Amino acid sequence: MISGSSGAVSAIEFVRKMQGKSQAALIRANDKEQYVVKWMHGPRSNVSVRLEALRNSVYLYLGLPVSTWTPIDIPDELLDAHPEMWISSPKGMVRPNAGVHFASRLVPPPGGAFYEFLPTRMFSRVTNRSDFWGAYAADVWTERFEIRQALFVPDEAPSSLRAIFIDHGSSFALLGSKEVARLTSCLYSDRLIYPESEMVTGLHDWIEHIRKHGHEAVAKAHDSLPPEWITASVIEKESRLIERIQELRDIVFPSISRFSSAASRKTGRCCSIRVLLRAGTIL
Predict the structure, then answer these.
(1) Ramachandran region of residue 11, left (φ > 0), alpha (ψ -120 to 50) or beta?
(2) Residue 265: its pLDDT value, please?
(3) What's the confidence (pLDDT) of residue 56?
(4) Which of these, 112, 205, 229, 263, could form a disulfide with 108 (CB 3.0-4.6 Å)?
(5) Can you tell me the distance from the alpha carbon of 106 to that of 167, in angstroms, rounded to the nearest whole number?
(6) Checking DSSP bridges between strand 92-94 and strand 149-154, what pairing results, if any?
(7) Which stretches of the chain drop beneath a pLDDT of 50?
(8) pLDDT value at position 3?
């Protein structure tokens, strides 16, 4: 579900507090779904949450398997009844404001089977491993420089699994002439999930896909936001995404080439881009 503010669901039950620095809450809504709710004025700030909503929608419109989101209306009555969902701060517990917040639909639905962490020996059962290259290209494009998170749910074939990407929040690292962000910071923690044989062609294909469909994805994502969330910071981010579309290929591949050349001069040996990627040393 991606909806505007007019389609916001309403919270009816607090389930539990989620782990993590965002201090999100798991809440059941009037559509019988459960959502991970991030507060618009919480530890990650309303700017960060708005940009996460934008990025989440962009990924969805690019065709990546992601969790869906919707605005959710949290009433005063629910907040007052459950102080355990409030935000912890150095000064004590802070009650979130009632009103519309960001809600990512729980994946999978309650009671459904899934893996939060998948042993390496089971990676061959993941039917959409190539999508990890798409998530990587999209993360670099949108400057989401945090560890890529995913859940693994049963796919159609027996014993097969499908990855669904979750949590599209971001640090605000920028790629510039003086400060170059580590392009490996948004990779999945176990690099063996990435099919090495598809590295170059997979990245090129996803980069071209973004170049072809990125403008439309940003426009649709913009329209999915509640009007009151479309602030100057959101518009600035959208403009930056459009600017980076044509630069994305140069951002990813020359960085690999430059580091490989530097490593060759230093060690006297040629470093393959696959080795550099898995070692996490691409700059």
Answers:
(1) beta
(2) 52
(3) 96
(4) 112
(5) 11
(6) unpaired
(7) 3-6, 173-181, 263, 267, 269-271, 276, 278-283
(8) 43
Q: Is 15 exposed, middle or buried (0-12, 13-18, 19+ CB in 10 A)?
A: middle
| Tens-place pLDDT, residues 101-110 | 999 999 876 6
Please give the pLDDT value at position 205: 93
pLDDT the model gives residue 195 = 85
Helix (H) or strand (E) holding 141: helix 131-142
The DSSP call for residue 161 is E
Handedness of CA 154, 55, 219, 251 (dihedral sign): negative
Token pair listed for 199: 């590295």
Q: Report the chain's terminal Cα–Cα distance, integer Å.
A: 36
What are the beta bridge partners of residue 28? 13, 34
| φ, ψ at 128 (rounded to 5°) | -120, 45
CB 162 within 8 A of CB 65: yes
DSSP 3-state of 206: helix
Q: Which of 114, 170, 106 is nearest to 138 (CA)?
A: 170
What is the DSSP annotation of 40-78?
A: TTSTTHHHHHHHHHHHHHHHHHHT--B--EEEEEE-HHH
**Contact, 283 vs 180, CB < 8 A?**
yes
Give the pLDDT of residue 110: 62
Per residue in 246-278, is it b (16+ CB within 10 Å) or e — as a string? eebbebbeebbeebbeebeeeeeeebebeebbb
89: helix, strand or coil: strand
| Overall size of the chain counted in residues | 283
